[in-house]
Amino acid sequence: MLSQTTNAATQKISPDLPLTAKQAQLVQHILAFTARHLTTAGPAVFALYGDAGTGKSVVLAHLFNQIQVAARTQDASPFAHTENYFLVNHPEILKVYREIAGEHPHLLKKDFQRPTSLINQMAKDTVHPDVLVIDEAHLLLSQADHYNNFYGDNQLQSLLTTAKVIIVVFDETQVLRMKSFWTEARLEKLIAPYPHETYRLTHQFRMQASDKLVRWINDFTHQHLHPLPTDVGANYDLRVFDDAEQMRQAVVRRNQEVGLSRIVSTSGYPSTLDGGKHYITEGEFHLPWDQYNYTSTPWAELPQTINEVGSIYTCQGFDLNYVGIILGPPVSLDEHDHLAIHLDRYTDVEAFKKRADLTDPTELVHIKQQLILNSINVLMKRGVKGLYLYAHDARLRHYLQQRAL
């Protein structure tokens, strides 16, 4: 059945996808903002806020397609002959956008870039961007990162030095690493000196879940634990498992039925970037972490990845039909039924690398705990049709089971 879902990811953010009336109005508003500031001095910024699944990416896809059609075909347009790029700092999502480009006559694969690549081209004076559209701007680096060949202090600041208009999509609840640590307050402080507008999307488009379940996820990932709602949506399947292997089998069945169903996990299990396989074991459950995907196909669309465990780095920004989540050792329930986050059990060594501008010990503990909670938020909102849960911590597992009526 998986063949029926080939290119499913591209269909969910394609510029051919119909927009709601409000989304179409928003695209036109951003186009007008961009055209107005193309001829003014200094950069202008439009910030689009919204939680996971609120339709940010499809708005950007429509917006960028219209900009490029005008740039390449409409000599009377304010966008005529402008040089524009779409940036995303996530390799799996970049693959989806480049696949979309191959299906549209006025979108070129080279229009879609990683931020570091474009910044380095700007430094060599080989590109001169007019308009930049940035998806997942919360993944932009906010400090130097030699591993990614970025030697500046902040990627957005570097991009502002050249571009005339920048449109960013931003969700602070999807910030996952210290090297890309952002908050709305930090973003707003950075863009305050420039002409700017903001807009917040609130309607949930991805998940066919009830508003009550979406609120429960948001509360859970801010350490506000309360019973799972009984009303999760007529077309949504929520299950809590006592056995991770049974959950895996349920996800495999869903994958056979409708495709794009995968097991994912939080950090907290052996994981090293050494090219080898590292396994997650929970009772009879025993599968390796996702392997680096060298193909042009997104990880979740590769048939063999039904036998791997996905991470935030392969799933962020990507829609699955059903997602089975393992809440690993860093997450537990204490004796007072409060959600506890254990930093010492987090095995993603890249997440907590030091940075010079964050030194207060109390603040650092809070930030690191929130990064872990953000990763859970990202994973829990991957499933369009269903969410399956298994918790490593027996107390948390039983708490969730007893209240999932």
UniProtKB/TrEMBL annotation:
SMART domains: AAA
SUPFAM superfamilies for the chain: P-loop containing nucleoside triphosphate hydrolases (SSF52540)
Domain AAA+ ATPase stretches: 42-262
Domain of life from the UniProt record: Bacteria
InterPro entries xrefs: AAA+_ATPase, P-loop_NTPase, SLFN_3-like_DNA/RNA_helicase
UniProt-listed Pfam families: SLFN-g3_helicase
Annotated protein name in UniProt: AAA+ ATPase domain-containing protein
Organism: Levilactobacillus hammesii DSM 16381
